[in-house]
Amino acid sequence: MNGTAVRERWCGEAFDSLHNAYKEAHGYSSLVVCLFGSVANVLNIVVLTRREMSSPTNAILTGLAVADLLVMLEYIPYCWREVLAVRPKRDKYSYGHALLVLLHAHFSQVFHTISIWLTITLAVWRYIAVVYPQRNREWCGMQQTIIAITSGYLICPILCIPLYLAFDIQPRGTILDEFGNKPTVNTTKFTNTTLYYVDLSELGRANDNLLATINFWVYSIVIKIIPCIALTILSLRLISALIDTKRRREALTSGSRKTPRIAEKERQTDRTTRMLLAVLLLFLITEFPQGVLVLLSIYRGQEFFTDCYQKLGEIMDILALINSAINFMIYCAMSRQFRTTFSLLFRPRWLPVPQVENAQNNHTTTMVTQV
Question: What residues have CB less than 8 Å from 371, skipping those under 6 apart?
């Protein structure tokens, strides 16, 4: 024993192994997800903004697709420069690169917060549509929806003000060799160099890191935990309301025959609700663990943040990117209207349009089938 106390780590070798195993693949996997997500969100916007798709729900999904698209487009050059490009240490910690990292942190956080705002709005709107259908047009009309979307794009940058103030670019002096790397025992030429890092600002360090602590609280509680709790409650109540509505519907129509139009409208309502529940569940899976880890970092201090949170940073990033990219697949899998509109827009001209027999009019009409 050398007399030095060995610090007990919060997260052991398993976290180190997970971190090291995924770190090398993070840059490539992030680029693939971002490229796919950018195309997917552009397709979402194109389809959802068609006149026949106009509705408050689709307006919110369009606003969500715009925010997710901007996150993807911004992450591509950042990921390329930060993860994949091989550069000397001097270039990697230049002032320009530090500025890029700082702007990336601010930009991604703002638009990710907007995505969270719109996801909450989506859950509230759907809950009202299922539980209070008679009030739906009054409370969740297109005008109210546009106000909610615009408010998200205006208020979320304000919520992130503690982040802007708590961090800035800090210079640190060091010694590097002629190639811009750390000198070794065989190095003959080296120079004093100033490297630049994104770190706590003077304002963030003041009063025992008060502003930095406020930033962590806002991030974990306001942006992560509260939305996740709200979504969990809304999702459970939405599922319960959906089951109750279905039971009442069956009780009222028992012994009577539904018209095809009413039956199809009910099925469309159920499909839409299930699709939005899938979107909300995906959000909870990716966001809730991150909020819990940040909250634990506040309580447990810097050691927990270093041992646990930072080791999972790349994994949490890729989960958030997947969450922003995968909605297109959910819409295609669960929304017949989305698939139909997508097919009308992007069906190759040489592909024949299916012919469907119209029994009511006793003649054949051309229409796009909904599968």
Answer: 336, 339
Which of these, 224, 198, 203, lies nearest to 213 by C-alpha position? 203
> Which tens digits make up the pLDDT trace of 204-235?
899 988 888 888 888 888 888 888 888 888 88
Question: Residues 140-153: pLDDT tens digits?
Answer: 999 999 999 999 99
Tokens (6 digits) for 105: 């942190």
Among the listed residues 113, 60, 127, 65, the one whose alpha carbon sits nearest the alpha carbon of residue 227: 113
Find, among 33, 120, 125, 116, the residue nearest to 67 by Cα: 116
pLDDT band at 193 (very low <50, low <70, confident <90, very high): confident
- From the list 296, 322, 323, 321, the residue with the least C-alpha distance to 309 is 296
Q: CA of 76: how far to CAs of 84, 198, 205, 253, in Å? A: 11, 20, 31, 54
In terms of Cα–Cα distance, which of 120, 116, 138 is closest to 129?
138
- Residue 194: which of 87, 93, 102, 97 has the closest Cα? 93
74 exposure class (CB count in 10 Å sphere: 0-12, 13-18, 19+) = middle
> What count of Cα atoms within 13 Å lies in the side-chain half-sphere of residue 114?
26
